[in-house]
Amino acid sequence: MVSTVERQKVLNKKLQEKKSDILMDALTYIKELKQKVDDMTKECGDSINKVDPSPTMDVKVEKLENNRYAVTVTCEKVQDMLVSLLEAFEEECLDVLHADINCNQIFHFEGIVEDDDGTFDVEMVTDLILEVLENKGVKKDTRV
């Protein structure tokens, strides 16, 4: 008859073998997942390199009443974009009456500007904004 001690040794040995098998299976699975991640990263990396990294822009200017213009500017975030835009407005005597700005992942400006002299039109305001964007290195994509 098999003693309790011997039976315990046999059970412990089988348990250790099971643990080893589980660990080996887990390691194999982890290696497979790592390979899949590496393959996907390589695929994505190749497609990312094909994308033009130059910032693009969208500018809309709409005439309102009393020499006011609704201005919308969207482009990729570029350092000091807001400052450059506001300085250009100030240099041309365009007053910013209202502005909503989002600089989280892109630069987005929605505002109302006023021309005190009445010398500007939609095209002139648009050209002013486009000049600022181009001076900041933003690539022209669309002009609405």
Automatic annotation (TrEMBL):
Coiled-coil regions listed: 23-50
Top-level lineage group: Eukaryota
Name of protein: Plant bHLH transcription factor ACT-like domain-containing protein
One term of GO molecular function: sequence-specific DNA binding
Organism per entry: Thalictrum thalictroides (Rue-anemone)
Keyword annotations from UniProtKB, A to Z: Coiled coil, Nucleus
Domain Plant bHLH transcription factor ACT-like intervals: 58-133
Cellular compartments annotated: Nucleus
PANTHER family linked: TRANSCRIPTION FACTOR BHLH35-LIKE PROTEIN (PTHR31945:SF27), TRANSCRIPTION FACTOR SCREAM2-RELATED (PTHR31945)
A Pfam short name: bHLH-TF_ACT-like_plant
InterPro entries xrefs: bHLH-TF_ACT-like_plant (IPR054502), TF_AMS/ICE1/BHLH6-like (IPR051358)
Annotated GO CC locations: nucleus
